[in-house]
């Protein structure tokens, strides 16, 4: 068996700044080269923290991390200084939700892409310029030559997100981390960006971790989906398996509460309650207080992850059939 | 409990006046241009055509959805109707009475009949008032005693699923997003309004919480005989909750009709593109081609003729010459569309073909 490109084992992250919060607990997953993993979850479920930890973006002063992260054979937890800088952008790169905030407003997008290229490769400014221009063309920015000299505020939301992707891919990373790249966009633009990401992923063969709260967007790009809840992965399956046969009550509930034309005129099967406070997680399964199937065991013991052919689930009472009534 | 709420006198002018056939709200020729500050030497003054002469009606007890991309004028329309900004032109007729007109309904009374819930649940609450104070504030201003207003606030909190004992004395920052949006809904209901404008009211909520709030909205609508104006960019939610849908593009209405006709037999190319841009939810049948390229165009000085023509695959010469009027769609009742392809007399080559289908 080939070693996976990304291997995360028992990753736990705790913030202990002015307030305590346990953001991730014992998250483990593997990702093969060329695979697209969708991380699905609500706000506060730990999706974005997972991505940021993969790039070591959290301040060590206020963060306690344990576990192991290996990306392309590199021990990410041990990285520091120059090797960390080379790793960020060179091997793993990130696309953020708000491209408008991620760019520096006082440099043109062309300059920023050139800067990234020259930080990783020792090449001349002219060569970097032509590479940067090539990147802008690859993300299908019309009139790339003219847009090269545009400042971020001169571009529309969709164009900025394309430029952001160009910047992230400028140094040919093996792993792209996409943190809700389409959430702030209109549906008509969102689908363009999703198709672009899918196309670029196919061309370059990079692995992608795609974080989203919108299952529709995940279905469009991902091969597998992992559902997160309160800092843990609760279920992982292929996209088709997840959509048609989710077994964790939370994933099933999330799918059932997704609005579609079929449930017009009848109340939605909503999951009751709201996500737990990360500073004060319940004992046992974090989802137990909202779960219709919860038993005494669920409230006392945290469920163990059980895996069987390509699917994983952490639940004491997984559902056996659909549809569920919550 | 709802009768308990309504007999709280003083501000109760929520009686049905026009009868069931009278639309609750008629909007005529609503228009709002925002001037754009240009350079010193610029001669020509530019305007953002935010809302450009739209007409529509909202039937009693129904939910009208307004959809469109960002910048199409959805939210401006809502704010103009609530008179949070003055329209450049246009009239509103509320249940048969002209709003703010001689012999019609006064603006203050109209505002009691109309309430609004906004997208940002936190920004729309006063951080220094407890949620009971927030909800009781309006009724108090409009003539209830403090005790009556507090009583009403507590009833409403209980109705939207927030235990008054536990929540009444909390401040907005002590609540989650879903709970805050429930408070906003309770506040909107404090006047017994007849029309509630929901401006992206569920957009910022997590999916599981969004479903709870959508259920609550539908229960409240049935209990209080409410009429909703539901503004959203989420086409799934609009399909789920609305009876009628209005599609806007660059400040104009391009198509309007019953929800099943809009989703099933959309007649305008823009509506069709908008609908097919929604992710499919079926891994075996992923979207292969983007229905529209580019971003929504700039509403400053929009193109002449049909405003959609620059992104439309069916655009012909006639589309740049004349703007299509909003007329009944062929063979579909209650369905209006503004497209030359729908008008056999327009000279568009696809016109006859389209209306024959």
Description:
The complex is a heterodimer of chains A (326) and B (357). Chain A is built from twelve helices and twelve strands. With 326 residues, chain A is α/β, with parallel strands linked by helices. Chain A has a domain at 106-172. In chain A, strands 6-7-8-3-9-10-12-11 form an eight-stranded mixed β-sheet, sandwiched between helices. A four-stranded antiparallel β-sheet of chain A has the order 2-1-4-5, covered by helices on one side. In chain A, helix 4 (109-120) crosses helix 5. Chain A is globular. The two termini of chain A are 40 Å apart. Chain B has 357 residues and is an alpha/beta fold. Chain B has two domains: 2-246, Rossmann fold (3-Layer(aba) Sandwich); 269-356, no CATH class. Helix content of chain B is 31%, strand content 19%. Chain B has helices at residues 2-6, 74-81, 107-113, 131-141, 146-159, 164-167, 177-189, 207-224, 235-241, 259-264, 269-276, 317-321, 351-356; strands at 25-36, 46-58, 63-67, 89-94, 97-98, 114-117, 195-199, 227-231, 244-249, 252-258, 327-328, 336-337. In chain B, a hairpin with a 2-residue loop joins strand 9 (244-249) and strand 10. At the A-B interface, helix 7, helix 8, helix 9 and helix 10 of A face helix 7, helix 8 and helix 9 of B.
Helix and strand element order of chain A: EEEHEEHEHHHHHEHEHEEHHHEE
Order of helices and strands of chain B: HEEEHEEHEHHHHEHEHEEHHHEEH
* Cα end-to-end separation of chain A: 40 Å
Helix proportion of residues of chain B, in percent? Answer: 25-40%
Give start-end ranges of low-pLDDT stretches of chain A. Answer: none
Number of domains of chain B: 2
Gross morphology of chain A is globular
Structural class of chain B: alpha/beta
> C-alpha Rg of chain B, in Å?
22 Å
CATH top level of the largest domain in chain B is: Alpha Beta
């Amino acid at each position: 068996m080939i070693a996976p490109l990304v291997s995360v084992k028992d990753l736990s992250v705790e913030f202990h700044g002015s307030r305590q919060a346990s953001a991730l607990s014992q998250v483990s997953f593997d990702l093969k080269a060329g695979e697209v993993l969708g991380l699905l979850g609500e706000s506060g479920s730990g999706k974005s923290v997972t991505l940021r930890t993969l790039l070591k973006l959290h301040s060590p002063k206020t963060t306690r991390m344990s576990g192991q992260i290996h990306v392309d054979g590199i021990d990410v937890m041990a990285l520091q200084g120059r090797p960390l800088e080379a790793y960020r952008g060179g091997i793993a790169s990130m696309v953020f939700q708000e491209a408008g905030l991620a760019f520096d407003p006082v440099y043109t997008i062309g300059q920023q892409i050139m800067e990234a290229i020259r930080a990783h490769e020792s090449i001349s400014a002219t060569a970097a310029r032509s590479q940067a221009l090539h990147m802008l063309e690859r993300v299908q920015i019309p009139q790339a030559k003219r847009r090269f000299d545009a400042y971020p505020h001169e571009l529309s939301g969709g164009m900025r997100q394309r430029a952001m992707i160009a910047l992230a891919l400028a140094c040919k990373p093996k792993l792209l981390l996409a943190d809700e790249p389409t959430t702030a966009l209109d549906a008509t633009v969102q689908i363009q960006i999703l198709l672009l990401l899918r196309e670029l992923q196919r061309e370059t063969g990079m692995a992608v971790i795609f974080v989203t709260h919108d299952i529709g967007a995940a279905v469009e790009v991902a091969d597998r989906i992992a559902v997160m809840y309160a800092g843990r992965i609760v279920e992982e399956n292929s996209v088709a398996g997840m959509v048609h046969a989710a077994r964790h009550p939370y994933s099933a509930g999330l799918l059932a509460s997704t609005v579609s034309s079929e449930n017009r005129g009848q109340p939605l099967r909503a999951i009751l309650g709201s996500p737990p406070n990360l500073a004060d997680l319940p004992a046992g399964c974090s989802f137990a207080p909202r779960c219709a199937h919860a038993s005494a065991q669920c409230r006392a013991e945290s469920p163990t992850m059980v895996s069987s052919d390509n699917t994983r689930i952490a639940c004491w009472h997984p559902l056996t059939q659909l549809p569920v009534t919550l | 409990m709802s009768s308990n709420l309504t007999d709280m006198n003083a501000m109760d002018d929520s009686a049905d006046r026009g009868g069931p056939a009278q639309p609750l709200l008629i909007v005529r020729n609503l228009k709002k241009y925002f001037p754009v500050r240009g350079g010193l030497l610029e001669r020509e003054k530019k305007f953002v055509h935010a809302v450009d002469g739209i007409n529509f009606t909202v039937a009693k007890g129904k939910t009208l959805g307004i959809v469109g991309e960002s910048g199409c004028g959805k939210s401006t329309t809502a704010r103009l109707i609530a008179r949070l900004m003055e329209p450049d032109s246009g009239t509103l007729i509320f249940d048969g009475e002209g709003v703010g007109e001689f012999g019609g309904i006064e603006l203050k009374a109209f505002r009691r009949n109309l309430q609004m819930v906004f997208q940002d649940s936190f920004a729309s609450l006063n951080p220094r008032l407890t949620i009971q104070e927030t909800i009781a504030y309006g009724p108090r201003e409009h003539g209830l005693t403090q005790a009556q207003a507090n009583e009403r606030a507590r009833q409403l909190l209980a109705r939207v699923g927030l235990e008054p004992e536990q929540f009444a004395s909390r401040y907005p920052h002590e609540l989650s997003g879903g709970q805050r949006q429930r408070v906003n809904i309770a506040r909107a209901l404090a006047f017994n309004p007849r029309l509630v404008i929901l401006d992206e009211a569920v957009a910022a909520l997590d999916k599981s919480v969004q479903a709870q709030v959508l259920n609550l909205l539908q229960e409240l609508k049935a209990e209080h005989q409410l009429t909703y104006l539901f503004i959203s960019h989420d086409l799934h939610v609009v399909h789920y909750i609305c009876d009628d849908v209005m599609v806007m593009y660059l400040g104009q209405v391009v198509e309007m009709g019953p929800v099943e006709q809009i989703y099933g037999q959309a007649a305008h190319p823009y509506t069709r593109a908008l609908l097919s841009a929604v992710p499919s939810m079926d891994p075996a049948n992923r979207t292969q081609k983007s229905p529209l390229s580019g971003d929504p165009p700039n509403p400053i000085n929009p193109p002449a003729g049909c405003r959609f023509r620059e992104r439309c695959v069916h655009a012909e010469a006639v589309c740049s010459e004349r703007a299509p009027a909003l007329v009944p769609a062929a063979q579909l009742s209650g369905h209006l569309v503004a497209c030359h392809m729908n008008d056999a007399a327009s000279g568009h080559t696809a016109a006859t073909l389209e209306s024959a289908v």
